[in-house]
Design goal:
2 helices; 82 residues; alpha+beta
Length: 82
């Protein structure tokens, strides 16, 4: 098993959520809601939260990997809509 390289950038396929995973226990979600967005930071302390982060890392069926440049472009676009 290879070592995971953080950060990992991904998005929900067909959705409006974008994620930056910094470790097995820390992630940030940007979610587009209409013309606005929310930012949610999670420091996983309990098993369901850690499982959510592992899903972001491993579940290629629901989440699509992005480059850092694509992720930063999406964040910049979201912030420009304020």
């Amino acid at each position: 098993m290879s070592e995971i390289q953080f950060p990992i950038f991904c998005q929900l396929k067909g959705g409006n959520s974008f994620y930056r995973v910094d470790s097995h226990t820390h992630m940030t979600e940007y979610q587009r809601i209409g013309s606005r967005y929310t930012v949610y930071t999670l420091e996983a302390k309990i098993l369901p939260e850690r499982n959510m982060i592992m899903d972001l890392i491993e579940d290629v069926e629901r989440y699509e990997r992005m480059s850092e440049e694509e992720f930063e472009g999406m964040v910049k676009e979201l912030k420009s809509r304020i």
